[in-house]
Amino acid sequence: MLAEALAAAGVAFNVLNAKNDAEEAEMISKAG
């Protein structure tokens, strides 16, 4: 539901679910 609401509002987001540890760790490090 949250993902649908964000998408409908035009908010860019990524769902982190620990399926791709390296890519998700990189995203988190770039976020600060």
Comma- or semicolon-separated keywords:
32 residues; mainly alpha
Query: What is the average of the pLDDT values?
Result: 93
What's the N-to-C terminus distance?
26 Å
The biggest sheet amounts to: none
Strand proportion: under 5%
Helix segment count?
Answer: 2
From the alpha carbons, calculate the radius of gyration and give it in angstroms.
Answer: 11 Å
Q: Helix amount, in percent?
A: 55-70%
* Number of structural units classed as domains: 1
Q: What low-confidence regions span 5 or more consecutive residues with pLDDT below 50?
A: none
Give the tally of β-strands: 0
Task: Choose one word for the global shape.
Answer: elongated
Organism: Paenibacillus jilunlii
Protein name: Preprotein translocase subunit SecA
Structure description:
The chain has helices at residues 2-8, 21-31. By secondary structure, it is mainly alpha-helical. It is elongated and about 30 Å long. The mean pLDDT is 93. This is Preprotein translocase subunit SecA. It comes from Paenibacillus jilunlii.
In short:
This protein is mainly alpha-helical and 32 residues long. It has helices at residues 2-8, 21-31. The protein is elongated, with a radius of gyration of 11 Å.
